[in-house]
Amino acid sequence: MSATIVDGKAIAAAVRAEVARDVAAMDRPPGLATILVGDDPASGIYVANKQKACREAGIEPIDHRPPAGATHAEVASLIAELNADPAVSGILLQLPVPPHLDGPALTALIDPAKDVDGLTPLSAGLLAQGRPGLRPCTPNGVLELLDRHGVELQGAEAVVVGRSILVGKPLAQLLLERNATVTLAHSRTADLQATCARADVLVAAVGVPRLLGAGHVKPGAAVIDVGMNRLEDGLAGDVDFHAVVERAGLLTPVPGGVGPMTIAMLLRNTVLAARASSVDATERSENPTGR
Ligand code: NAP
Asked: Choosing from 111, 117, 200, 225, which is the catalytic residue?
């Protein structure tokens, strides 16, 4: 039997519509500040897409574009200003930054309460400890797809291929938080095919086109393909879609699977950050001495 194909565009649209409803019910719109250092055209397009999605959801985009030659101190001071600004619910530093700047060091300066990308060391630490915090957007999007399809995670054997800080590692922790039994595979995994073939939930976040084929997939497994590999004939995932579609129970296409979820989850994180800060503000006004 053929796998159910996940419609990531439709699920992302549903999440964005929920975010828009949540924003409409808020006293004031959340603000998402983007920092784009320099004028890299690809980064400019990513930021423009995020700002457009914000406007559509009723979130206010707050645009900052320091020049390509901006110093670490200048960008750091902008981040400090945004950390302190109550109109700013979330802060996003678009990566990569120009080579004279240290992207991770700058990202680490973002207040974790406003870290809507979920990528600061503090946010990563909160996730590792299973404590509440803002979670990274792409891994969170993978969970949303699985949840919307009713995939049982508790007790499931989950294999994540790829251990990047951006996708694989946080996703493994999110799955663990949901009581899956998680294996994190990588380029040095001894027998990747046998490891993957155990999985009830198999996620590929590798960056190698069509690395996983039918032999990697347990019949009926949920297979989520995070890979986005630009080839001459278009985008390809890390999973060989045609080889796997008759074997998997659930399968994401590329494009149109995980891809659209990232911005949707960024918008959701911005609303979560705004809500948490308004709760904090109420608590402070009711108890100004903090006693
Ligand atoms: P990355 O930082 O390059 O990490 C790739 C991981 O895959 C590494 O852990 C690496 O293992 C592992 N790996 C490489 N070759 C392997 C092999 N032959 N067998 C098993 N594991 C192998 O990549 P990333 O940032 O996580 O991105 C992964 C893919 O997801 C890319 O195609 C990227 O474009 C895509 N992506 C999509 C979205 C989205 O849809 N919104 C967002 C982010 C990323 P080692 O650690 O051992 O080197």
From this structure: 117
Contact between 92 and 33 (Cβ < 8 Å): yes
86 domain-assigned? yes
What are residue 201's DSSP bridge partners? 158, 222
Same domain, residue pair 59 and 150: no
pLDDT, one tens digit per residue, over 46-81 is 999 999 999 999 999 999 999 999 999 999 999 999
Contacts 24+ apart (CB under 8 A), 279-286: 280/113, 281/86
> Which protein residues touch ligand 1 with a CB less than 6 Å away?
138, 161-164, 166-168, 185-189, 192, 205-208, 211, 226-229, 258-259, 262
pLDDT confidence tier of residue 280, bands split at 50, 70 and 90: confident
Residue 111 annotated as catalytic: no
Reported pTM: 0.95
Residues 192 and 86 in one domain: no
Residue 203: CATH number of its domain = 3.40.50.720
Question: What is the tens place of the pLDDT at every residue in 247-271?
Answer: 999 999 999 999 999 999 999 999 9
CA of 227 to the centre of ligand 1 (A): 7
**Number of domains forming the structure of the chain:** 2
**How long a stretch of residues is the chain?**
291
Residues spanned by the domain of 211: 137-259
Sign of CA dihedral 78, 83, 87, 88: positive
CATH classification at residue 91: 3.40.50.10860
The answer to whether residue 94 is catalytic is yes
Span from the CA of 172 to the centroid of ligand 1 (angstroms): 13
The rounded Å distance from CA 91 to ligand 1 centre is: 25
Phi, psi for residue 62 in degrees, rounded to 5? -120, 110
